[in-house]
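Tokens help. Our protein:
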Amino acid sequence: MSLLTFAADAPAFAEGLGAEEHDAVRSLLDRRGTTSVAPDRHTALYPHYLGRIAPADRDLILPSLIDALTLVGTRDDLLARIATLEQASSKLAVPGRRSSAIGWRR
């Protein structure tokens, strides 16, 4: 819900989402009775922000969002995902970083 709420509040970010995720953002705005530019949108978008996801909003939690934002799955799934993330991070040029995927220099 955090990503959908942020996207509803930041249209430029929402533009980078896929069609299904963009539809979920639109549904969230419609359900809350607001728009991404309404001056009072924050009170509509963030009720019970730190609480549980309301049952009526659970359909907005898309498998694609779960896959993109969380680490879930079997042990083998998680090990493969972490290995992929480590490989991707080793290709980033970060000042002060060792070439190894593990360990940082100060």
Q: What stands out?
A: Residues 1 and 61 are 7 Å apart (CA to CA).
